[in-house]
Amino acid sequence: MFNKKSPKDMTEAEWREKLTPEQFRILREKGTERAFTGPYWNTFETGTYSCSACGSKLFKSDTKFDAGCGWPSFFEAVAPDVVTEHKDTTLGMVRTEICCASCGGHLGHVFPDGPPPTGLRYCMNGTSMTFTPDE
């Protein structure tokens, strides 16, 4: 019987094979795309945003808003357990990193300056996600 490997059990070599170089840099090496250059920062179609590494659903378009920051921004994940939070002290700042709970891929950061009802701004790298429009 064939057992599919869990995304959390994949090696870095396997991730390099699966992802584009830019996806690997962002998702596995905690990189960031430049503002206003990645996909989806200016996309407002109806649909679902998923992790580009493992396909887990992360955000719905009805929680997306224009934060003016140049990255796709959302005020809420599809469920609390689809992302994990980690303290990030790089670049001389204290921030909260957001990762995909299924594969551990780096997605971006969350800030407490978003709109109601949550007051959160999930500032995500567009390269770390795929978008599926609603039919």
TrEMBL record:
Its cofactor is Zn(2+). Residues 12-134 form the MsrB domain. It catalyses: L-methionyl-[protein] + [thioredoxin]-disulfide + H2O = L-methionyl-(R)-S-oxide-[protein] + [thioredoxin]-dithiol. Binds 1 zinc ion per subunit. The zinc ion is important for the structural integrity of the protein. The active site is at 123 (nucleophile). GO terms for cellular component: cytoplasm. GO terms for biological process: protein repair; response to oxidative stress. Its EC number is 1.8.4.12. GO terms for molecular function: peptide-methionine (R)-S-oxide reductase activity; zinc ion binding. Zn(2+) binds at residues 51, 54, 100, 103. Keywords: Metal-binding, Oxidoreductase, Zinc. InterPro entries: Met_Sox_Rdtase_MsrB, Met_Sox_Rdtase_MsrB_dom, Mss4-like_sf. Pfam families: SelR. Belongs to the MsrB Met sulfoxide reductase family. This is Peptide methionine sulfoxide reductase MsrB.
